[in-house]
Amino acid sequence: MRILIAPDKFKGSLTAVEAAEAIYEGFFRVFPDAHFDRTPIADGGEGTASLFRENMQGEEVRVPAHDALGREISATYSWLPNQQTAVIEMSEASGLWRLQPSERNPLHASTFGTGELVAHALERGAKKILVALGGSATNDAGVGMAKALGWKFFDATENEMEPQAGNFSMIQRILPPPSAATCEITALCDVTNPLLGPHGATRIFGPQKGATPAMIETLEMGLEHLANLCHIQLESDYRNIPGAGAAGGMGFGLLTFCGASLEPGFQAVARLLGLSERILSSDLVLTGEGRLDRQSEHGKGPVALARIAREHGKPVIAFAGSIEGSTEAFDACIPIADGPLLLEESQRRAGELLRAAAERTARLLRISL
Q1: Are residues 11 and 29 in the same domain?
Q2: Residue 289: CATH number of its domain
């Protein structure tokens, strides 16, 4: 039997590589003679840069930057010298993981640090930049990034403004930099949400970044004002493009301020890893991530993987720390918890729980063979 093991990360608990190893160990105990293909995946969010680096003889570049609250940090991106391509994860500088829960405030969080990484890659001579969206602490539609790249934002009295989402309604004029970078930039999206509305950046992702109901209204009005200004002054309007709402509107920002294109992150990863061919040569596909919920249907890796497997007639089993909503994309969906657990304990024991769940599932499969 040929088994493809291709999980995404279990956020806050396991990297995709660690998750693949845990699933492998569980299945190997039951099927030691099977052929295992361990291929961790990403969907354009966290973990994407390392996948490209490991599969394309890349190197890690470390540079000084700023986190979402403006504190000095050291951040990295992947450089692929043969392609003169940079792969940047916006979560690296502007990620939620860098903030304590009490610090989360999307009214003040900025993507300026991500812009610093893009600027560094441009100075390095990048011909192409991939920006992996996901895991952000921000809701600023990439305005902070734009400032780092030379864009300026002014209020009604022509004072240059600090481009934070909380004061977007005060912006009256947008000034582009003297010259635009001649570089192909692609945003890798792990979701298909638009910028505004009930399925937009603020209402769907704002609460996990610390937005209160009052903040959500302020943020939504600010983004709408910004989109209207861009439409009038820059003659661009990307608010309704699928993926524009990714990472707090970073998709919109890259389209507007960098002339970028959007590509489903999983599509780029699948092409890199040759996933379609790997699935075709397998008898069983095993995947998973920390949480399977309604967001999983909008471009997340395990569901996208399952759809390819279904096209090839291959069964797919998914493992998850928690499951909410439909799991119809999979032939079976297995929660890894073996009893009532607090989130902290579940995260701490994630590797152990995933390994045990994989072994239980393998034993059930063996009975049916």
Answers
A1: yes
A2: 3.40.50.10350
pLDDT in tens, 262-311: 998 888 999 989 999 999 999 999 999 988 876 556 557 899 999 999 99
Dump pLDDT digits (tens) for 147-172: 999 999 999 999 999 889 999 999 99
Q: Are strands 316-323 and 284-292 parallel, antiparallel or unpaired?
A: parallel
Residue numbers of the domain that contains 233: 48-265
What span, in angstroms and rounded, lies between the C-alpha atoms of 201 and 347? 27
Residue 15 tokens read as: 């990297």
H helix runs in 133-233, sequence order? 143-148, 201-205, 213-233
Write the Ramachandran bin of 287: left for phi over 0, alpha for psi from -120 to 50, otherwise beta: beta
Residues 176, 297, single domain; the answer is no
Single out the residue in 212, 232, 265 at which a domain terminates.
265
Q: How far apart are CA 9 and CA 291, in angstroms?
A: 10
Tell me the residue length of the chain: 369
Q: What percent of the chain has pLDDT over 70?
A: 98
* 8 Å CB contact between 308 and 276: yes
For residue 190, give the CATH number of its domain. Answer: 3.90.1510.10
Encoding tokens for residue 118? 């893009």
Q: How many domains, in total, are found in the chain?
A: 2
Residue-level pLDDT at 325: 67
pTM for this predicted structure = 0.86
Rounded to whole angstroms, the Cα distance separating 345 from 24 reads 22
Strands 184-189 and 261-264: parallel
Among the three residues 239, 265, 291, which one is the final residue of a domain in this structure? 265
Tokens representing residue 280 in the block: 């075709």
